[in-house]
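lol ok so funny story. i was supposed to be doing the assay writeup but got distracted and ended up predicting the structure for this chain instead. priorities right. anyway since i did it might as well share w the group, maybe its usefull for someone
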Amino acid sequence: MANDNIEALLSQILDKLNRVEANVAQIKQDPSALKNAVDEAIAKLGVPLNAPQR
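and the output, tada:
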């Protein structure tokens, strides 16, 4: 049972690493992709960049 859980976790980690690798390749190919991804993440959070700091 524990081995199944470990295998599942390792599989999830591998999937995430593969996505990171794909994202890095995309950013290397098109550096504006990073800015677009950051802008998209900020928009999802609903926090404007110029929000006053408290």
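Residues 2-29 form the longest helix (28 residues). The mean pLDDT is 85.
back to the writeup now i swear
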